[in-house]
Sequence to fold (449 residues):
Amino acid sequence: MAVNMDEKVAPIFQEVLNRNPGEIEFHQATREVLESLGPVLVKHPEFTHHKIIERICEPERQIIFRVPWRDDKGEVQINRGFRVEFNSALGPYKGGLRFHPSVYLGIIKFLGFEQIFKNALTGLPIGGGKGGSDFDPKGKSDDEIMSFCQSFMTELYRHLGEHTDVPAGDIGVGGREIGYMFGQYKRITNRWEAGMLTGKGTDWGGSLVRTEATGYGATFFVDEMLKARKDTFGGKVCSVSGSGNVAIYTIEKIHELGGKVVTCSDSNGYIYDEKGIDLVLLQQLKEVERRRIKDYLQYRKHAQYVAKGNIWEIPCQVAMPSATQNEINGADAEMLVKNGCIAVGEGANMPTTPEGVKVFLDAQIAYGPGKAANAGGVATSALEMQQNAQRDSWTFEYTEKRLQDIMKHIHELCYETAIEYGTPGNYVNGANIAGFIRVAKAMVAFGVV
Ligand code: GLU
Fold:
């Protein structure tokens, strides 16, 4: 597919390709942002002068380390740990940790790069970073998870701190893992430093709404896109992929707003429940019993389970990919549009390939890219940090209201920026440009650092 880049930006992208061989997801993420930036350099020649784009594409620091641990049989296992501290212009590095066998440097760099702009869009004081490991939590016992998390933190702790770098969860890292890592950090440093990790348990420094925040936020964002088109969720058939915390709370909020979600999935297959996904059942299976979604059928006999199928073949009006990167390709996007999909909100990071994004933009449907639509998770992490700094904890209602206001603001910012730069309705440009400008201005102010 042809890269569509301004002549000033194209050589910078070429340099990214040369300097980071084989990191295809990182190439994809940088390409998507850089394709939006040509017109920004025309309005802001100082960004060219200060080489802001070149600098923003190079992480400030990349840490790669060995994570040895012992499994239940007493055997030693070795994994690889990563933390990419990408950009600290707007605040301490902030971004989740992903534990998944697909993790390598290219994945962590794509996530860290996106995180810079996502975090900037929230308007809150957080820089961008990401980390994780190729450790596979699937099928591991509690003891094994704990041993891995403790070993991981034994190396990473020296790079972290409430004013330095503040990780959180991502795929494979939830409340349990955050607990083990916080405990290990506390033990090594002898500091009860709440603000060094977010997604903590609500009994020990966590924020209410953090668990729900990414899903709720993505749904609020789609609701705003629909409102901008004088439409609502009311009565709409919606398709959600995934069955982790993003998917679960997306389903909950869509149901609250009057839509009907008919799908969910895991890496083995998807569920189609035409009567609407039974959220209580899904939560019991996934959050309490940590089972596979196939088991949904044991309790909802009318539903269908399709092993290894393509979830996007189910017709829907709103699609919310909430599983992982590149889960919607060009053909999937065409199928969605052909079947009547009018809005897409990305709960996952970069779930749509460049070919898919082009289909959505050409069809002029409401397409909310991840770095805008799923920013509610990290925004609520920043609210957790605020509560920690105040040694306070806010109510669910107040925190949810703050999240909703932030998502409204992000929508407005992307919407207005897209108009200002001559591409009304294009939230990809809106998000990339608005996020970039905020970081770039801070970098100019700081000089060559
Ligand atoms: N992993 C989430 C994301 O992709 C949340 C990060 C955080 O809360 O720091 O934005």
